[in-house]
Structure formats: C-alpha cells, structure tokens
Write a structure and sequence with these properties.
The complex is a heterodimer. Helix content of chain A is 33%, strand content 28%. Chain A is built from 13 helices and 14 strands. In chain A, the strands form two sheets. Chain A has a twelve-stranded antiparallel barrel with strand order 1-2-3-4-5-6-7-8-9-12-13-14. In chain A, helix 7 runs antiparallel to helix 8 and helix 9 packs across helix 13. Chain A is elongated, with a radius of gyration of 30 Å. Chain B is mainly β. Chain B has one domain. Chain B is globular, with a radius of gyration of 13 Å. The chains are: A alpha+beta, B mainly beta. At the A-B interface, helix 4, helix 5, helix 9, helix 10 and helix 13 of A face strand 3 and strand 6 of B.
C-alpha cells in the first residue's frame, strides 16, 4: 500500500498548487461591509445596498450637509432598498425564495431536472468506468464531470478477458456539497472569494465508484471444527460470502482550467463565441420575462419604503446596526403582504428555475471561453484474481462545436505492491488512446444519438499476472499451491483496441450506449476478439432540493 | 416612486437613449403598468433607445449578460432627440450581477 500513500501524497501536493494556479474572474475584494457578518438572510442579501446607503449618509453628514438629509439626494440608494421599487426586485426575489418553502423545493428540483436535460447534449461527460473495468462501454475517458449523481450499468469488456457487469455511481464534489449544506449561492459574475473553495477545489472534482456485480464479496473466517462427515483433511478456514457486488474501482478526477485574463482580446473573443453557443442570451431573456411577471405582483403588494424614516435611522446611528434592524422589520412587513398574492409562490419558483438555467449557461460559457487545460484522473483498480493497480491518467479534449469533439488519453498503470522475488516491475502498462464524438441526430431535440469512434494502444513490458487463490491445488494432485502464488498469463507487448459506439440520449438524463469493439488480444488471452458492450446511465438531478425543501 | 426618486426623469413623450457603462444588454422592454413593449438595443449592447416616454412611473427592464471583469454599471442619458430627459444626480447604478437590470423612469406632464 506504499504506492497508495505515494499517490495520495502526490495528489495532495499537486492539486492545491494547481488549484491556486488557476485563473478566474478576478473580483476585487470589497471593503468590509458593516452587515457582512449579520446572520439575517435578508440583511445578507441587501448588505451591499445597506452599506452603500449608510456610507453615503455618513459621508454627507461629515461634509456638514444640512439635516435632516433630503431623500432626493439618495435616490439610487433608496430605490435599491425600496421593496416596492423595481430597482430592488432582483434581491427581493432572492430573499423571498427561501421563505416560500414549498416552491423552493419544487424550483430546485425542476431546475435541476431541466439542467439535467440540457447537460444531456454534452459530449464530454464520463459516467462509465474506464477501459480496464470488467464491465464498461468506455474505451477513452472523457474530460468532463458528472452532474449531481449519476448511476451507470455497463456490461461488456474492452481490454479485459473476463466479461462482467458493473454499477458505477458518479458525483461531482461541489454538487454534493451544495446538496448537503444547502449552500447554493445565487451568483455568476459576483461569485468571489466566498466560494473559492467550491469554485477551485470542489467544482472541478468528480468521484466515482464501480461495483463488479459478477463478483461476490467474501470474508475468510476460522472454522471451529468438523460438523459432519469423515474426511481426514482438516479445514481451518472458510470463505463466507458477504454479498453480491464487489468494489472493483474507485476514481477521482480533477479538471484543470486554463488561466485567463478577462481584459485580453483573446478572452473577449472566446467569451462572445461561447455566450452565443451556450445560448446565454436566450436564458437571460427567459429570466427577464419571469422576473417581470413577479415585479407586477411586488409593485401591487409590497409597501413603499418610508424614505424619511430610514434616512433618520441612518443619520442617528452611523454604525448601520439601527439601519439593519429597521430594514429587517420593513422586509418582514413586506413579506407578510407579498405572500397574500396566491400566485407569488409559482411566480418566484419560475424565476428561481430560470435563474438556475441562466447560471448554468453562464458558467458553461465561462468554462468554454477559458478552456480546459486537461483533466487528471486517478483510478484504484481491484480486478478479480489480479493484483491491485493504481492508474494515473491525463485527459485532453478539443471541442469543435457542431463538428464534434476529440478526446486524448495517456496513462500509466502501476502495481500496488511487488512480492519478493517477483519477475516483474512496478509498471503494469502504459497506454494512449483517442476518441471522436459527434451528435449525429436530434441536436435540439429531447432524444439524440451520438456516434463515437475510438482507438487504443497499450504496451505492457510483461504478460498479465494472475493471482492463484488460496486452496488451489497443483493439477492432477492434492498438493495445495503456496499462498500468494502468481502466474504470468497472456503476452507482453502491444494491445490494440478499436471501438464504434452509438449512444442514445433520451430526455430525463437517460443514456444508452451500445458499442462493438475489436482487439488483437485481451489482458489474459491471446488471439483477436470481437466484443459488444451495452449500458444504461441515469442522471439523478431531481434529487436536488431534497435537503433544502424544508427551509 | 416619485419624480424625486426616479433614475431618469423627462417630459412625457420624450425620445432618448439610455446608456450603461458596464455589462451587455441582450434585450429590453419598457414596462408601464400592465403594458409592456420591446425597446431597441444599440451601441453594441450598451444602450437602449427609449421612445415616447410614458407619463408617470415606468421602468426599463433589461436582460443582461455580465462578463468576467465587469463592474457596477452607471446609467446615463444621451441623444435626447425629442423633449427633455436627464439621469438623476448622482447617477443611478445597476449592481454587478443584477439580472434583469432595471432603470426607473418618470414622465412629467400628460
């Protein structure tokens, strides 16, 4: 397990350094706002406006302005705090949404489902286990991450000899973090330091685990004596089946984004192109329409701000605390009146859904404009009757838009441990591979088909290794082989695989990949092999909101 | 909202151009009571042409696209081709990230 420690240490060293090195939208840290630590949600939402107003009042007072101060000189500040005024509507809806508990759940779940449908168009998602698994449809690993949670069932092999079926659960670390903590900041361009950990560490990280459904989990226990029979051979231990399905691999991957400077003409050019391709404008238009509908209700029901009173409060207490208390009471009064509208829940729910879709499109555009440098993937493999391995892989993808996407992989596989007197080294194999993907039908429809053509070359310096299980006897004898025996099987050298695959992408986040492959050999057997692979995956985006619905 | 508090005040019926210093306007409408009408976006997404300013309270609703590196947008009035209109002093601001963006209008006279 020394290699495990080495790999984990390497990852621990490399990932944070790389994360620090990534570029991003530089948000200048704003000076401390008096309300930044206030626990009240409405104060947090309006903190920038409250702080701006208080500072403006303090500034005017320090200049010796006549008191009481005139509201007309604070028009911009007051409009952003007046819940009856359209200038305040965006933040009012933000503060209102969590208070409308039922629609919060509905909007999150609906938005997540809609986002799941939108992401079905992506060519870069990796939901299946990699080529080394005993049940997979994926010869080349893709650069993109999973959504909230995805489950894939795959049958068929590509480089392995033993055919099996795997169940793979994938998740994005950021999505899980948001789901569990309920921390789902409603921001795009203003996402700054507060979400650094999410943006740079969690969001680029995807985790997945695969269970080999054909393998049974076993636990070896000591026996306590013969229960019947007359055999003279003493049985000291027995393998107890502990269940169907055994963890066959664990994967962690991290997407390294390019550094970018939003002021450069190159980035601006990429951004303009990405905004058009990701349809950010259309998402913004839809959001505007939904927000305008809420505005009509707010203008009818929300009370106007008493400008003279709030000015007086701000003048009397320059710290802003009295202002925050006054605004919290005003917000509470407005909330009571606004919820009288029987349509407000559904209207706000629609806005939150459209905001989520806009945010999704905006970040997709940013991701596209910045471009991915590469994705690093680590696989911990536990193949049946073979040594444990650690696979380190680099993935690079180039998106050509309507013309498809090219993905390149390069990886090395290392044995976890080397027994004494072993006739092989740490290196299991090295491989390079490439895949071309293109949506061929239904590009803007709910059901699409994607064609994938892949090629793979692997070189291993020694034949594959087979572990001889405990209790195995030498052929034709009753002589047990020593525990820990390993045998070379198959051949060293090159392994070639090609695959053609068709993926049917249905609405609701269901993918059905069907592939056919040819290889010149497999890991344990000589001679060419034609194989078929089939799978199904489902995106569980609708789980979003299960922990936040009760807020 | 009153004349004192509006972001832009003008004579009813005025034609003018609203400009923003940051962000990009994808589309815009003029909202007056229960009525809504489309406005023309100009200036590479940094301006909206407002025609026939309604009497009393109304507002311009703008579908925004904010770009990394943008800042709060200052609103101004330019190119008044008919009537009279001016932005409040100090100039109104649309907060970075606000979507849709909003500019309050007030039209004086019948």
């Amino acid at each position: 397990m020394k290699t495990v420690a080495s790999v984990v240490s390497l990852a621990a060293l490399v990932l944070p350094i790389a994360a620090f090195g990534q570029g991003g939208a530089p948000n200048a840290p704003s000076p401390e706002e008096f309300c930044s630590k206030d626990a009240r949600a409405e104060i947090q939402t309006f903190c920038k406006d409250l702080d701006r107003f208080q500072k403006h009042v303090n500034s005017e007072k320090s200049k010796g302005a006549e008191t009481p101060l005139a509201a007309k000189n604070f028009a911009n500040d007051l409009n952003h705090l007046d819940l009856h005024d359209p200038d305040a509507r965006v933040k009012f809806i933000t503060a209102l949404a969590p208070r409308l508990a039922a629609s919060s759940f509905v909007s999150k779940a609906t938005a997540a489902a809609a986002m799941g449908d939108a992401s079905a168009q992506r060519l870069d998602r990796q939901l299946e286990p990699d080529h080394a698994s005993s049940g997979t449809t994926s010869l080349v690993s893709k650069a993109g991450s999973a959504e909230l949670i995805a489950l894939a069932l795959d049958s068929g092999v590509l480089t392995r000899s033993v055919n099996g079926t795997t169940a793979t659960l994938s998740t994005n670390a950021d999505q899980i973090f948001r789901l569990i903590t309920g921390s789902d900041p409603d921001c795009t361009v203003t996402c700054g330091k507060a979400s650094w950990f999410q943006d740079r560490i969690l969001n680029p990280t995807t985790l997945s685990a695969s269970l080999d459904l054909a393998q049974r989990g076993n636990t070896t226990v000591a026996t306590s004596g013969q229960a019947s029979g007359t055999t003279s051979t003493e049985v000291n231990t027995a393998a107890i089946p502990t269940g169907a399905g055994k963890l066959s691999s664990f994967t962690a991957r991290y997407e390294f984004a390019n550094q970018f400077d939003p002021r450069t003409s190159k980035f601006k050019e990429n951004w303009t192109k990405a905004v058009a391709e990701q349809q950010v404008g259309a998402a913004s238009d839809t959001l505007k329409t939904a927000t305008d509908a809420v505005t009509k209700s707010l203008q009818t029901n929300a009370p106007a701000l008493d400008a003279d009173r709030i000015l007086g409060v701000a003048q009397d207490d320059p710290t802003g605390h009295a202002l925050a208390n006054f605004f919290a009471q005003y917000f509470s009064d407005a909330l009571q009146k606004v919820v009288q509208d029987p349509n407000i829940r559904s209207l706000v729910s629609q806005v939150m859904q459209d905001r989520a879709l806009y945010r999704k499109a905006w970040f997709a555009a940013l991701h596209q404009a910045a471009g991915n440098l590469f994705t690093f993937e680590y696989n911990y493999n536990r193949p049946a009757d073979q040594p444990l391995t650690h696979d380190l892989k680099l993935i690079f993808a180039r998106d050509f838009g309507d013309r498809g996407m090219l993905t390149f992989n390069g990886s090395v596989s290392l044995y976890d441990s080397i027994p004494s007197a072993a006739k092989y080294g740490r290196l299991h194999y090295g491989q390079i591979s490439t895949e071309y993907d293109r949506t061929i039908t239904g590009k803007d429809k709910s059901t699409q088909t994607q064609l994938s053509l892949a090629g793979y070359w692997q070189y291993q310096p020694h034949p594959s290794i087979l572990n001889i299980p405990t209790g195995t006897v030498a052929p034709g004898t009753t002589i047990p082989l020593p525990n820990g025996t390993q045998e070379f099987v198959g051949t060293a050298g090159s392994l070639w695989v090609t695959q053609a695959k068709l993926t049917i992408k249905a609405s609701g986040g269901i993918n059905i990949p069907i592939g056919v492959s040819w290889s010149n050999k497999t890991d344990l057997l000589q001679g060419s092999k034609v194989g078929a692979q089939v799978g199904i995956s489902y995106n569980f985006s609708s789980l979003a909101g299960i922990f936040t619905g009760g807020q | 909202m009153s004349e004192d508090r509006a972001d832009v005040v003008g004579t009813a019926g005025t034609d003018f151009t609203l400009t923003i210093s940051s962000g990009e306007i994808n589309s815009a409408t003029l909202e007056a009571g229960q009525t809504s009408r489309d406005l023309t976006v100009a200036g590479g997404g940094r301006a909206v042409i407002v025609t026939d300013l309604p009497s009393g309270d109304s507002f311009v609703s703008m579908a925004m696209i904010w770009t990394p590196g943008d800042t709060d947008a200052t609103v101004d009035v330019e190119n008044v081709t008919k009537g009279d209109a001016h932005a409040a002093d100090p100039k109104p601001v649309i907060d970075l990230g606000d979507n849709p963006g909003t500019v309050d209008l007030f039209g004086k006279g019948a």
